[in-house]
Design a protein that fits this description.
Largest sheet of chain B: 4 strands, mixed
Strand content of chain B: under 5%
Largest sheet of chain A: 6 strands, mixed
CATH superfamily of the largest domain in chain A: P-loop containing nucleotide triphosphate hydrolases
Organism (chain A): Hydrotalea sandarakina
Structural class of chain B: mainly alpha
Number of helices of chain B: 16
Number of strands of chain A: 14
Order of helices and strands of chain A: EEEHEEHEHHHEHEHEEHEEEHEH
Helix content of chain A: 25-40%
Pfam families (chain A): ABC_tran, DrrA1-3_C
InterPro entries (chain A): AAA+_ATPase (IPR003593), ABC_transporter-like_ATP-bd (IPR003439), ABC_transporter-like_CS (IPR017871), ABC_transporter_ATP-binding (IPR050763), DrrA1/2-like_C (IPR025302), P-loop_NTPase (IPR027417)
CATH topology of the largest domain in chain A: Rossmann fold
Number of domains of chain A: 2
Family (chain A): Belongs to the ABC transporter superfamily.
Shape of chain B: elongated
Oligomer: heterodimer
Order of helices and strands of chain B: HHEEHEEHHHHHHHHHHHHH
Structural class of chain A: alpha/beta
Shape of chain A: elongated
GO molecular function, one term (chain A): ATP binding
Strand content of chain A: 25-35%
Radius of gyration of chain A: 24 Å
Chain lengths: ~325, ~450
């Protein structure tokens, strides 16, 4: 029907005390990098656990790779790196990677070739006989990433993949994520770090309190949430800044932030300053950062929830 | 390759390759061997000599010095003052002395006292008491003018020959051996359940706290993970036991080499029921011979076969419960203690029934205990040592085995459901009520 690798339809998961996931639906396009965002306790982990087949939804269906999700067989096509990293501390790194790969269904020989390939690529070859407890946090993070993508999964789920990594290694992993996506893998990326989301993701879904509150393309969302603000810079301070075409929001010497009034366009603003013969060095629209949108939406939905809660009381 | 097998293999290899495994597997039997060697060494070797002087003012204790042997020596002396004896005690030449007053009536009830400088241990006291009573007893019998033959026949304890309906001779030694073997194997299973059960529990807790459980469970069903762990650790236990049994067998075969006296004692000492002083050691060697012959009457293939069955059955039954508890525990290992209680209770209860069952294998509590799957692994071992059908009728054994298999399936099913939820739950410690709820959650 379409190019979706994963479709969630009206998923619900209720625990005794809370609705962890309350009627969430979305779909993830094949080969895209998808951001699943939400504050702590929003239901992200529950959602991811349902997608990985660790737990089952109370209601709703998951379609994976063109058919109903079958945890028994489909887990081999999924690589999951949970937020809480876990490795056997006393086990040697090579053996550990081999063991986890075999659990995903690879044969020993296949697994060995792939581990060698990845270890070489990420400069981990000398680690083979070290134990996990001897590794730094960043190093074990790299190992965890390798074990997640080793079996060439169609769907890679990464929960906070960069936490604890230095910028060099973070970049290394980021490039690998892009490369895997180019090769056709679909990546679900769950994080609180909005600047990473802006940089990496094509499409995002924001959840809070078990409900989806935002779903869309990163660019579209920014357009949707823009406040019609523009930034203008000049080489010297303009003599006049009062005009019917715009309102000044802030002025900082040679720099103006303005909102354009109804019925006027950006050209009217520019014309005003051109007529003054001041030299314009920069003119651009201010788009909200995902961070701002995130905070605004989460606060709104929480406010709504607590208002509702008070009303019930 | 099946994933359960992969998991079991990892569990097995990581444990077997540890240094502590080699240490406990090889060192423990050596320690046990050394311990028994010491006991035997001390029991074969005549201990410290205890010299007791008897100041025989009544002239009762004639002609006894030549018959002395063993640890305790009575020296009959006359016309020695107590101060001289006190002196001898100080010089450690004698341990103590008994004064028999001149007018002492051998048939009377007057108590005598033994003086010594230090307090004598309870076992030695008992020995001295017994030996002195024997002395007095013989002298009393002599005072009645009985001859040697009459005295012997009075002193001959006519032992009862216990025979079962099947006409088998059932010697005391055999009953003792059955008791010992039953108690030992029951106790062994008790220990196994605890050692390997807690090993499973700690393994599960480790996985949960390392947070690797979530990674594994995204590729393997929780049930497979649990079963892999249980079979892997069970294989470790089985291997450890096989090594122990082989080692113990080799060492017991070597035992006579180290202690030639032991073999001599069992073979060479003739039976002399008349000689009172030799009687004790003769009795000992007779018992030893009895033990040897009784040991050979025990049906070892049956015993070992049932032992392995109940070892595995009991382990599998309890291991899944231990795994469920491990999965429910969070950061604080102390939580395990309180959650373990409902599991340790039936094991301890079984131990209590077992101590009754070794004495009376056909009592109703023993029959119940050996059929009920939570207690049968321990209790049945106590009964089976008495043999079939004396200790346990065949049908009861078969029913017990069937119930154990059923019990194992039931606890595993229940534990797997608790495990599946618990392994992913973080936060506060669950109560048993909550865990019970998990067991009946759908999916």
């Amino acid at each position: 029907m379409n190019n979706a690798l994963l479709q969630l339809q009206h998923l619900k998961k209720f625990y005794a005390t809370q609705k962890a996931v309350d009627d969430i639906s979305f779909e993830i396009t094949n080969g895209s990098i998808f951001g699943l965002l939400g504050p702590n306790g929003a239901g992200k982990t529950t959602l991811l656990r349902m997608i990985t087949g660790i737990i089952y939804p109370d209601e709703g269906t998951i379609l994976f790779d063109g058919g109903p999700f079958n945890p028994m067989n489909d887990t081999a096509k999924i690589g999951y790196m949970p937020e809480e990293r876990g490795l056997y501390k006393k086990m040697k790194i090579g053996e550990q990677a081999l063991y986890l790969a075999q659990l995903k269904g690879l044969s020993r020989a296949e697994a060995l070739t792939k581990i060698r390939f990845w270890f070489k690529k990420l400069e981990m070859e000398s680690w083979w006989n070290k134990k996990v407890e001897d590794l730094s946090k960043g190093m074990s993070q790299k190992l965890q990433f390798v074990t997640t993508v080793l079996h060439e999964p169609k769907l890679i789920i990464l929960d906070e993949p960069f936490s604890g990594l230095d910028p060099v290694n973070a970049n290394l992993i980021k490039e690998e994520i892009f490369r895997l996506a180019q090769q056709g893998a679909t990546v679900i990326f769950s994080t609180h770090r909005m600047e990473q989301v802006e940089e990496i993701c094509d499409h995002i879904v924001l959840v809070n309190l078990g409900k989806k509150i935002l779903d869309g393309n990163v660019g579209d969302i920014k357009q949707q949430f823009k406040e019609n603000k523009f930034n203008i810079s000049f080489s010297e301070q303009p003599s006049a800044t009062i005009n019917a075409a715009f309102n000044v929001v802030t002025q900082n010497k040679n720099n103006l932030v303005v909102t354009i009034q109804e019925g006027y366009s950006t050209n009217d603003v520019l014309q005003f300053f051109i007529d003054q013969k001041v030299h314009i060095t920069q003119f651009n629209e201010i788009l909200p950062s995902l961070n701002d949108i995130f905070i605004q939406l989460v606060e709104d939905s929480q406010g709504a929830a607590s208002r509702k809660f008070q009303a019930i009381q | 390759m099946s994933k359960t097998f992969l998991i079991a293999r990892r569990e097995f290899l990581t444990r077997v390759q540890k240094k502590t495994f080699l240490l406990t597997t090889i060192l423990l039997p050596l320690l046990i061997f050394g311990f028994y060697a010491l006991i035997i060494y001390f029991s074969v070797k005549t201990g410290d000599h205890i010299q007791i002087a008897i100041v025989d003012n009544a002239k009762l204790m004639t002609n006894i010095n030549d018959k002395q042997n063993g640890d305790i020596h009575f020296n009959v002396v006359q016309n020695v003052t107590t101060s001289e004896l006190d002196n001898l005690i100080q010089k450690k030449q004698i341990t103590g002395y008994i004064v028999i007053p001149e007018n002492y009536n051998i048939m009377g009830f007057d108590t005598l006292s033994l003086k010594s400088d230090k307090s004598i241990g309870i076992l030695t006291r008992d020995k001295i008491q017994r030996k002195f009573s024997e002395l007095l007893e013989e002298k009393r019998l002599m005072a009645l003018n009985l001859n040697k033959k009459q005295i012997d026949s009075i002193q001959n304890a006519n032992t009862l020959q216990f025979t079962s309906l099947q006409g088998e001779k059932d010697s005391n030694a055999k009953a003792g051996i059955s008791y010992g073997v039953g108690y030992f194997s029951g106790f062994l299973i008790y220990i196994i359940l605890f050692i390997y059960g807690t090993m499973v529990m700690r393994g599960v807790m480790e996985e949960k706290m390392n947070r690797i459980a979530e990674v594994i469970i995204s590729s393997v069903k929780p049930f497979k993970l649990m079963m892999g762990k249980i079979t892997g650790i069970g294989a470790v236990g089985l291997m450890q036991f096989i090594i122990w049994i082989v080692l113990v067998l080799i060492l017991t075969m070597l035992l006579p080499l180290f202690f030639p006296q032991l073999a001599q004692q069992t073979n060479n000492l003739p039976m002399q029921p008349g000689a009172m002083q030799a009687a004790e050691s003769v009795k000992n060697s007779g018992e030893l011979q009895g033990i040897m012959s009784a040991l050979s009457t025990i049906n070892f293939p049956l015993l070992i076969g049932t032992f392995i069955f109940y070892f595995l059955g009991g382990y599998l039954l309890y291991a899944s419960l231990f795994a469920a508890v491990g999965s429910a525990v969070n950061e604080d290992p102390q939580d395990a203690q309180s959650l373990l209680l409902p599991i340790t209770m039936p094991i301890i209860f079984a131990m209590v029934i077992m101590t009754k069952a070794v004495n009376d294998p056909n009592s109703s509590i023993a029959v119940f205990g050996s059929l009920f799957p939570l207690t049968s692994p321990i209790v049945m071992m106590a009964r089976i040592a008495h043999g079939i059908p004396n200790g346990v009728p065949l049908w009861q054994l078969l029913v017990s085995m069937a119930l154990l298999i059923g019990g194992f399936l039931a606890t595993t099913w229940l534990a797997a459901k608790i495990y599946r939820v618990g392994i992913l739950m973080y936060g506060k410690k669950p109560t048993w009520k909550e865990m019970w709820k998990w067991a009946f959650l759908k999916n």
